[in-house]
Predict the structure of TonB C-terminal domain-containing protein.
Amino acid sequence: MYATLDHAHPIAPGQAAARPERRLRFAGDPQAEPLALGAVQPRGSGAAPERSRYGEARRPNVIALLGAAGIVGGTLAAMLALNVAQARKQAAPRLVVAQLEAPRPPAPPPPPKSAPQPLKPVVQPVSPVVVPPPPVVLTSAPATISTSPSPAPAPAPVPVFAPEPPAPSAPAVAVAAPPRMENAGDLSSKMIAADPPRYPVESRRKHEQGTVVLLVILGTDGKVADISISRSSGFDRLDKAALSAVRHWKWSPTRRDGAPVMVRGLVEIPFVLQT
């Protein structure tokens, strides 16, 4: 919205300046009432100034223009500085770290081919089999026969007059004679109990084999009274296994003339691994 001033009557030259009637109008209100203003006394000569509109006679304000130009220039400089700073931030180089694998060492040369070695025969484990002892044959040892000389004939008795007999003494205690020992033959038919010996585990692993010959003396009850090694198998483990087993064997008692007798003989125990 703006206002204009209109002169009501022009002033003719040579006439006294009359108080003109001016009307103030607003651009947005065309129906506004005219406002009477007092007469304006002209300055200088009596000539009336030329009719002009509001603001037409003003000169340009140099200081204002320079100030406006300075503000615009400062704004442009600030904007350029911000753009340069942002461009520097965006253009900052990024630090890229690359991990490079070290070159692998060259592979070692293949070992020289050796001459093919002959294949060793594969030895399959042999499952040891304990051969049950054969019927034990007691080898009869040479019998030792003790012969006693026959008593000499007594001379004829000569009558002698003896004095009176003394008082009777206590009867002598009879000492029991030791049982008789015989060398027996085959006792396999009279064997009652005979558990076979166990093959030692270490002997199986080492493939130890052999035959043990034992000298056995049987008591009057048929049990082993004494036992010893007559011939070794060559391996201590096999000898001990044979002694341990035969020591618990049992035979039927042997009698001669109705009386029990002791028997002496040999027992063979073979240890054989079957493949």
